[in-house]
Amino acid sequence: MRITEQRLQRFEKIVSQSQLDLTVVLENVHDPHNIGAVLRTCDSVGIREVYVILTDKNIDPEKYEIGSKSSSSAKKWIDIKMYQDLDVAMKDVKDKYKTLIGTALNESSVSLYETTLSGSVALAFGNERDGLSEEILPYLDQNIVIPQFGMIQSLNISVACAISLYESCRQRLALDKYTQGETSEAKKALLDSFVKLHNSSYKTKD
Question: Which CATH fold would you assign to the domain 20-177?
């Protein structure tokens, strides 16, 4: 089925609002439901690529599930980059994004609400049990903490990611970063990829 004008206009709007200087890094996250929730949040705030690092020996990359069935529509529109080498992953992330911000609790952690998330930022989240590994910590430029006031001082990874991404969204909205402006070459390429993805989905039906 050929792409309709209405569908093309929707793609153009989504691409114009995409935040190509914002991404999420997931390190050894096990639960596909958590990954799925993260992907849906990423899509909702305009993130178009996510980095997945698998260095945990208990994870079999061949059987690794990128999200659950409920997240299939979100992951269709997000470029998922997978790595089994932390150094290679970090080089790729830091070559493209200016600041890598982690969620490891330590004495240098700064409140999420005192952190600038409107620039070129990669947000790193660790697995459900251990958080970020010791190996990734030297690569971080900054650590954030989400203020909490209850008895249990921990949040599910997908919840922590959603809170952090929507704080970034709030800051970006204040700077009109979701307002349609001049289309960059990167966004033109993204639009082309959306159209090709649409066409390939309907190729067998034409």
Answer: Alpha/beta knot (3.40.1280)
**Cβ–Cβ contacts within 10 Å for residue 91, how many?**
13
User: How far apart (Å, rounded) are the C-alpha atoms in residues 201 and 115?
Assistant: 40
The residue ranges of every structural domain in the chain are 20-177
Residue 23's closest CA among 75, 78, 73, 66?
78
| CA separation, residue 14 to residues 8, 18, 20, 51, 166 (Å) | 10, 6, 12, 21, 17
> Of 139, 42, 19, whose CA–CA distance to 89 is shortest?
139
Give the closest residue to 165 by CA, choosing from 72, 26, 12, 13: 26
pLDDT tens, position by position, 112-135: 999 999 999 999 999 888 899 999
* CA 173-179-182 angle, 5° bins: 140
pTM of the model: 0.90
Nearest Cα to Cα of residue 51 among 84, 98, 14: 84
The pair of structure tokens assigned to 168 is: 């970034």
Between 39-48, 66-75, 105-114, 177-186, the lowest mean confidence (pLDDT) is in 66-75
CA distance 23 to 81: 11
Contact call for residues 146 and 161 (beta carbons, < 8 A):
no
